[in-house]
Design brief:
The complex is a heterodimer of chains A (438) and B (339).
Chain A: E1 2-12, E2 17-26, E3 29-34, E4 43-46, E5 52-55, E6 57-62, H1 75-84, E7 87-92, H2 103-116, E8 120-125, H3 139-145, E9 149-150, H4 160-171, E10 177-179, H5 184-187, E11 192-193, H6 196-200, E12 205-206, H7 209-225, E13 229-231, H8 237-248, E14 253-257, H9 259-263, H10 288-299, E15 305-306, H11 315-318, H12 335-344, H13 351-366, E16 381-391, E17 410-420, E18 423-427
Helix pairs in contact in A: 1-2, 2-3, 4-7, 7-8
Chain B: H1 2-10, H2 17-20, H3 44-60, E1 75-80, H4 86-97, E2 101-106, H5 118-126, E3 132-137, H6 142-149, E4 153-159, H7 165-179, E5 186-190, H8 197-208, E6 212-216, E7 232-234, H9 237-241, E8 246-249, H10 265-272, H11 276-279, E9 287-289, H12 302-305, H13 312-338
Parallel strand pairs in B: 1-2, 1-3, 3-4, 5-6, 5-8, 6-7, 8-9
Helix pairs in contact in B: 3-7, 3-13, 4-13, 5-6, 7-8, 7-13
The chains are: A alpha/beta (438), B alpha/beta (339).
Amino acid sequence: MKRLLRGGRVVDPASSRDGMFDVLIDGDRIVKVGKDIPIDGAMVVDVPAGFVVCPGLIDMHVHLREPGQEHKETVATGVASAVAGGFTAVACMPNTAPINDNAGVTEFILKKAADAALARVYPIGAVSKGSNGEQLADIAELKAAGCVAISDDGRPVKTALLLRRALEYAGMFGMPLLEHCEDQSLKGEGVAHEGYHASALGLRGIPGVAESIMAQRDIAISEIAGVPVHICHMSAASTLRAVREGKGHDVKVTCEVAPHHFTLTDEALSTPVSYDTNTKMNPPLRSAFDRDEMVKGIADGSVDAIATDHAPHHYDEKKVEFDQAPFGIVGLETCVPLCFDRLVHRGSIGLSKLVALLSTNPARILKIAGGALAEGALADITVLVPDAQVTVDPSKFRSKSRNTPFGGWQLRGAVAATIVGGRTVYVNESTHGAARFQ
Amino acid sequence: MSGSRKSTGATKWRWNMIEQQVPAVPAVSTLRHKDLLGIADLTPDEILLILDTAEAMREIGYRPIKKVPTLRGKTVVNLFFENSTRTRTSFEIAEKRLSADTLNIAAATSSVSKGETLVDTALNLEAMAPDMIVLRHASSGACHLLSRICRAGIINAGDGMHEHPTQALLDAFTIREHKKRIAGLKVAIVGDLLHSRVLRSNVQLLTKLGADVWVSGPPTLMPPGIEREGVRPTTNVEEAVDGADVVMLLRVQLERMQGTFFPSLREYFAVFGMTRERLKLAKSDVIIMHPGPMNRGVEIASEVADGPYSVILEQVANGVAVRMAVLYLLAGAEHEAAA
């Protein structure tokens, strides 16, 4: 079946397109992008004014929790959440139980993803067996089973030596290494950004340097290995400085920032309520200076990707003392509104840059399909409505978990529809005009 | 019990004396809080109201029959997840003097050891309709958590490294008794600042009432951003003590230490320990305070702790009156809310 998305604003940084174009889909592929494409028997969808058609969004950093923690999220609920957030693909971190350090776990995740048949799922394998930093995981086996990258996320690769070996070895397969940067000794038992707000609440601090010192190590090792390293969920201004310096010296370093780190600061620990465990994540919400630097880094191109670090937790687990609560918040369904509201509408970036951060660049870093509206490419398409008003309602989340600090927030910018492989997998019923994408 | 028996000979009393002698507390109760979570939530007027009420409450402790019916029929649960002698005993005596029904739950003997969460423990207690819960817990913010789920008023008896409001109130009460004021006094607080909830409550209270507060300790134990609270941080203890009206020592909290904050207790004492020598820098009528329990020979020399300037045991005595005031005023707030 052919579908013609006619007359919408098409934003596709990969082809430098930003203008009114038609997109013709046949089956699971895009067959043509251009002006005035003849209907030729296709079902016509007239894209409403104010809607934007772009390559499907890719979240390169999510936790789907399956296998092992299905009370928080499953692959099925995770991808349902993803498509509701406009994501046609997600890359899921290996810190499941058991750890995704072998083909068995990878294949299990991919089977669950195929059953759910919503967003594409790209598993990320562990760097080391059990992610315990001792011995390399069977990386060739992980690659063969379908892993697109490696990471010991939740903690950094334990030693500089192991990181070097991992980069060199995985480089052979062209697999990127995604690094959770955190010096464990500087983190200590910290639960919040080290600064006035944590101190006033009597919470142990995690300084920004705990992140940047490890990023500096990683960038230095990446340089001698000659293999790219990707810095996950960057939060500290000093880390951004290290990344810029690395890029300035042609080190193949890339980085991502999560929406909460360009939106919130550590003031959220005590405002509007104190000790809300939905303000506890790792890396923590940092100072206003750090937050503003993240926005600048996004605007000036130092930041390559926006990724949510979607970290679902059951409400029981978050309804505890602050220092006892697990780190992390859900992010898939609030990402697009936050990006529009905080970055696009405030003039930091344009639409094309937004699509690059959420689609083009993640596809390039992970070396996966998608990220472009090219002829012959998979028809993974997201339709956005930059000016739609959204009130964040966690009770309507498709995710199994509701742990978000953004409940009740009024934001401008929404997802209208999500199309994966030519099939519409999500339509935002509260957006007028979105139904026609069904 | 033995106290009241002894006094029967000296005083002619009747059972209904308990009914009649309600203390002369300030006429208007303006403490409109359900909970006392921290000094941070109180206005200067509310602090003064508590201190004034405590003056009236203290008088009850001097009577042969140390009991008034103010909280009769009220149930107060002392829920202690950390060891405490002073604070728990002080609260219990305060509750009994106000005729509340009290019960003590220590974490070691509750179902906490069976893995129950704090919220579930609190909800189970709540189901039995206590009027107030006095909570001590190792986690900062534990009282905030309970205040959001409990109808009962929550009184913070120390939460992690956050606040210990009744300690700061009894400290202020003690200072005021000796100095007749708090505004304008130079108060030096010396010790493990980082891990101290007593520090955080005292900084809030003393700055709200206009004291000139200096805090001193090793840089490794200096809370980040402490200067934003309007205090003067210094690593030079002599500078802090110089001309001080009040010197308050904080316990070096060995149990909260992780890693190496200073080389040894011996060296800590050499650099920061409050000795008679250092104390000569303070005003001649300085008072020495310590929230207890003391590490003699670490933060304070024994001859200072036991010396003429020490009001450490007065602090303990005043704790009962201050806690009676807090219980009384919060119960009053409850009445107003119900009305």
